[in-house]
Write a structure and sequence with these properties.
The protein has 13 helices and seven strands. By secondary structure, it is an alpha+beta fold. The radius of gyration is 34 Å and the shape is rod-shaped. The relative contact order is 0.09.
């Protein structure tokens, strides 16, 4: 550990200004015409320091420098096409299956070992800020980072608008001792960066779940039943948590392999730090599984409360129907067209009938209210 100043301080800075969003335009102004347009940055690192160049290096030029004088090359690409990636894949001898996955994207997090390289896929997660959770709210947004790790090269292929690695590259360049460990140090830094993003998103999603849970079980419910929570909101949040789970769960095994199984492309001094990343992935996975189970319970409770509310409404409707049945019956009897009917010609017939009707209605109302129907 003494050989590395402070690995966590590099990949997890306590405070740093937010970097500008990484775009291809930052590389377009001076890019060599032979360089693929998808290349965001291409640099050679020797003894932990970035070699300065008057003009941006093409991947082929960078690799020639590395093979001649040593070091390693780090190439960053954003959503390359098959044609743009073909030259780089050929230059570095990347496996066709891994190249196909990197270009097409929408891959499951995984770790694949080939003869001279490792291919790692990470799902990046970004929390989407929203003023109010609705049935159509997007809570998490996903992207992908594919990493090719070789003896003297490291290639990142990024998909999606989130997950820029520019700030991480600058932080690593500020620690030459760490970068001197080679491509495996960069792989760890990216893994740690991605998983730290999971932790932040998990905390934000927890707040959304707490908000929904509070509304469902709010003590200010009318009649003891919550009426202010739409089941579609809970279901939408559950779908977003499921998307989060798909990014985290498959990453458990790759991080365990990187932390436990010796690999010739992973520096032993770096490998021990993958244990910390694996622990964080396991922690986030437990949180996400808990979120899913909690949302199931909240959704079932909300549906049960909705059913109780419907039953209560039906009881009230039935109670009022019973009360209204009394005057309806009396009016129906005296509305019949018979010549000889009791009390038709009695002076007090109308007030007596009305009094009896009102008394019966009040008696039924009192009985139903006492029994909780009203």
């Amino acid at each position: 550990m003494s050989m590395i100043r402070d690995l966590r301080a590099v990949v997890r800075p306590s405070s740093r200004p937010s970097p500008r969003k990484e775009t291809n335009a930052s590389y377009d102004t001076t890019r060599d015409p032979a360089t693929p347009s998808a290349v965001v940055d291409c640099a050679v690192y020797r003894d932990g320091a970035r070699l300065e160049s008057r003009t941006p290096l093409s991947p082929q030029e960078a690799m020639r420098l590395v093979r001649r004088d040593g070091g390693f090359v780090w190439i960053g690409l954003h959503e390359p096409t098959e044609a743009e990636f073909a030259g780089i894949a050929s230059e570095f001898g990347l496996h066709p299956l891994a190249v196909e996955d990197a270009v097409q994207a929408h891959q499951r997090p995984k770790l694949e070992r080939y003869d001279d390289s490792l291919f790692t896929v990470f799902k990046t997660i970004h929390y989407v800020e929203h003023d109010e959770l609705t049935a159509n709210s997007e809570v998490v947004e996903t992207g992908e980072v594919m990493c090719f790790t070789g003896r003297d090269f490291f290639i990142t292929v990024r998909h999606g608008g989130q997950g820029s690695l520019r700030a991480l590259r600058h932080r690593l360049q500020d620690d030459p001792e760490l970068l001197a460990k080679g491509p495996s140090a960069v792989l760890h830094a990216i893994a740690d960066h991605v998983v730290d993003g999971y932790l932040a998103v998990a905390d934000a999603v927890q707040d959304d779940i707490d908000e929904v849970e509070t509304e469902v079980f709010s003590p200010g419910r009318k009649g003891g039943v919550s009426r202010g929570v739409d089941s579609a909101r809970i279901y939408q949040l559950k779908r977003e948590v499921l998307e989060f789970k798909r990014a985290v769960a498959p990453l458990l095994r790759p991080m365990q392999l990187l932390s436990e199984r010796p690999m010739r492309l992973i520096d032993p001094d770096i490998q021990k730090y993958f244990r910390d990343v694996a622990d964080h992935v396991a922690r986030v996975h437990e949180q996400v599984v808990g979120f899913d189970e909690l949302l199931n319970s909240i959704l079932q409770a909300n549906l049960a409360q909705a059913s109780v509310a419907q039953n209560e409404d039906m009881r009230k409707i039935t109670a009022w129907a019973a009360i209204i049945a009394v005057p309806t019956m009396v009016c129906g009897v005296y509305g019949m067209n018979f010549k000889y009917m009791p009390e038709l010609h009695w002076k007090y017939g109308y007030p007596v009938i009305m009094g009896i009707t009102v008394a019966l209605c009040l008696g039924i109302h009192r009985t139903l209210k006492r029994n909780g129907w009203l």
